[in-house]
Amino acid sequence: MSGDILLEIAGLHAGYGAVPVLFGIDMRVRESEIVCLVGSNGAGKTTLLRAISRIIPARGTLRFGDEDLLPLLLFESVGHIGLDKSGCHRINIDTHTSDLASQRA
Question: Full-prediction pTM beyond 0.70?
């Protein structure tokens, strides 16, 4: 496998208040890789994305390139865009990314 490691997760634990959901997650994503999280309802996919985005607290190792994401606050870290489950609305990626950028400024 070639390419530098872009996202590194090691020993990640996260949850909601006193309810733990993720236990020791390890994952590496290299530059130019496409990654898909697959799992049943309640498997922790959304919790992992929320931990990476710093929406919920987490502990362990969480790095994006050379930057440690764990001490960062929401809007200082990696963002993600959710999809409308109804399928009735189209997401305009330009609008969402510019909104995210303005919130971080």
Answer: yes
**Distance (Å, whole) CA 73 – CA 54:** 6
Whether 47 and 21 have beta carbons less than 8 Å apart is answered as yes
pLDDT at 11 exceeding the cut of 80: yes
Please check whether residue 13 lies inside any domain of the structure: yes
Where does residue 12 rank: exposed (0-12), middle (13-18), buried (19+ CB within 10 A)?
buried
DSSP 30-87: ETT--------TTSSHHHHHHHHTTSS-EEEEEEETTEE-TTPPTTSS----PPPTTS
Element of type H or E holding 5: strand 5-16
| String of DSSP letters for 72-88 | PPTTSS----PPPTTS-
Res. 1: pLDDT tops 60 = no
Domain that holds residue 51: 5-79
